[in-house]
Amino acid sequence: MQPETVQLGAKYQNLFQTNSEIVLLEGPSGTGKSTASMLYLFTMADRYPGARILIARKTRASMSETVLKTLETLPHGKWLARTSGGQRAWRQKYIERNDSEYIILGLDNVDRIMSGDYDIIYLCEATECSRQEFENLVTRLRNGVTPIQQIILDYNPSHPLHWINQLKDVETDHGTIKVERIKTNHKDNTVLWDAANARWTERGTKYMAHLEATLTGVRRRRLLLGEWAASEGLVYAEYERCLVMGGKLDVPASRVAVGVDWGWTKPTCFSVGVLDTKDTLHIVDEVYRERMSRENLESEANRIMEKWGAEVFYCDARRPEAIHELRSLGIPVRPNKLQSIESGISLVEQRIISDRLKVWDCCVAMRKEFGFYEYDDHQQPVDANDHAMDSLRYLVAGIDYVKSVPDAMDTEGVQEELRARLGLKDVEAEPELSFIERWEKWRNEVWASDEEFV
């Protein structure tokens, strides 16, 4: 292997010296984590001929211009790229002269990942992934060439209750599984910081000025300061109480429904909800993907119906052509008729504060968006980081739209929309029934029919 000439900050020596099975490489954006990780992987591949090293991220498509670009920018990485041939976007592995291999996979290719054995796994942007995906990866550490079978998680801090932030040493009957957390900052990146002269380099000065000028709120705390932080202006300020950390879903279900937010260059999101007999809604599965074709939509909808028994897909009403297309494929789609965003947020919030919403840790996109979904200066939800938030709103509105109105009588938007929907212009039209009684009567009739009331 060609010797590397890249200089690393002193803190990264811990990565090369650790004996821990689980390594958490933590820090804000731009601290050199990916570069240090690639150099470590090169070293281990050279030292142990025949080693199998998995380089992974949530999706394969997201790797070509991120971690693989970093790999191929390094001197030895350039040689690997030349000898591997083909375009970076299509490469599946790099092979060393001593037969060590770097296998390139996204976690969206679960069959290939679960059929392989590895010595070291490097998971880039690990906060994108669920704990279940992490645990699946750990089961593949069994190739036995390197003395320690190891997984390295590379990430920026996220919300404080993220599962990665809860990892710690585990005592087992077979010994202790060690977890080592290496915290980095921008001064650990020698491209940005001149340690010998204790000053920022020219490039570092520009980069830090850019971060200082552009990052605000929770992004500043996470991506500049490296803190595990929740937003102060969050739409769902108490969202952390609905996050489920591990465990197994074992509840009797009364119905299963799906919320759908359409996308193309932005992600399409399917959020699967299981409503139990105690009226708790469990978000148990999700699809979060850009550029989903007609075939992709049909495949995912059928998978969800087969796996979960989903009865109905509540979706954004602003895409009638997409609704028509899914219906033509036999997918039970209903457009969201609760057009007020504020009313939908109110219904979701009622479930959160009453502990009737549980979001399981396999739903990474939704859990991540909770921590970014904020109000602007005019107290309107910011139209960003909201694809899973929108699908959740459509789902909850579809389930709770009518039946939750007695709990939302003070919410003017909800009451007004529902009155119009029910045709209740004169609430005294049937004096023997109260407004709420008429509501429930109508609701029960609708549930028994095929009318599209939401």
Word description of this protein:
- 33% of the residues lie in helices and 19% in strands.
- Helix 3 (67-73) packs across helix 4 (75-84), helix 11 crosses helix 13 and helix 12 (364-370) crosses helix 13 (387-400).
- The protein is globular, with a radius of gyration of 25 Å.
- It folds into 2 domains: 10-188, P-loop containing nucleotide triphosphate hydrolases (Rossmann fold), CATH 3.40.50; 239-405, 2-Layer Sandwich (Nucleotidyltransferase, domain 5).
- It has a 7-stranded mixed β-sheet with strand order 3-4-2-5-6-1-9.
- It has 454 residues and is of the alpha/beta class.
| CATH level 4 superfamily of the largest domain | P-loop containing nucleotide triphosphate hydrolases
- Percentage beta strand: 15-25%
Q: Describe the sheet with the most strands.
A: 7 strands, mixed
- Averaged pLDDT: 85
Give the helix proportion (percent range).
25-40%
Q: What is the global morphology?
A: globular
Radius of gyration from CA coordinates: 25 Å
CATH topology of the largest domain: Rossmann fold
Instruction: State the separation between the terminal residues, measured CA to CA.
Output: 62 Å
Instruction: Walk across the major sheet and give the strand order.
Output: 3-4-2-5-6-1-9
Under CATH at level 1, the class of the largest domain stands as Alpha Beta
> How many β strands by DSSP?
18
The CATH architecture of the largest domain can be given as 3-Layer(aba) Sandwich
Unreliable stretches (pLDDT < 50, length at least 5) are 402-415, 421-431, 446-454
Please state the structural category.
alpha/beta
Number of separate domains: 2
**Total helix count?**
15
